[in-house]
Amino acid sequence: MKNYKHAYMHKKYFSANKPLQYFFIIITCFIFFAACNSPYVSKKRGYYTIELPERKYQKFDQPSFPYSFEYPVYANIIQDSTYFDNNPENSYWRNIDFPQFHARIFLSYKEIGGKALYKIKQPNGQYKDSFTTNVFDKMVADAFTLTNKNNVVSNAIKDSLIHTPNGIGGVFFKVGGNAATAKQFFLSDTVKNFIRGALYFDVTPNADSLRPVQDFLQTDMEHIINTFKWKNNE
Prior knowledge:
The protein is an alpha+beta fold. The chain is built from four helices and twelve strands, in the order H-H-E-E-E-E-E-E-E-H-E-E-E-E-H-E.
């Protein structure tokens, strides 16, 4: 009897509140259909905020080196023992490391008219050392060739002439897209000295996420270029 009475009161309550039930049903259906018909809006991919250091510079000026320049205090300069799979042809090749950004600027120096060592693959699969002379026109062509290797993943390559306050000329390259190196340059006096610089990141290339750091380090590259000097021309 008790259960019957409870069921009766329960039925009576809902019967008395039918208008309220219908109201909630209508509101629920309205929200459901409105959500189904709403246009899809994609969310932009977010990236971590990158803390950029305060710009300060110091001078690189080793007594025996044919060049000098200013570089950031948040970078380290180390000797390059290998340049990818090739051995440096002289002791003036250097890396400018940016540990905070997992980035590095490779500096490869060549003496115009000097001897260069190349590895030539033989029919038996072995490599043989071959010496040749560094010719200015060929080194310029090689710089353009190395930059254009990024064409597979780049959407644009822009080059601009360099003329520094110290009277040094060269070319600066900006490579668009997800290229391994988006900033490159070379400097030369055309008669004795030639140096090439290339910025690389030790991460998977992603133009969107790396752009703030690339732009930040481009300013540092420009400072290196504008303070660059050939010491054997002084």
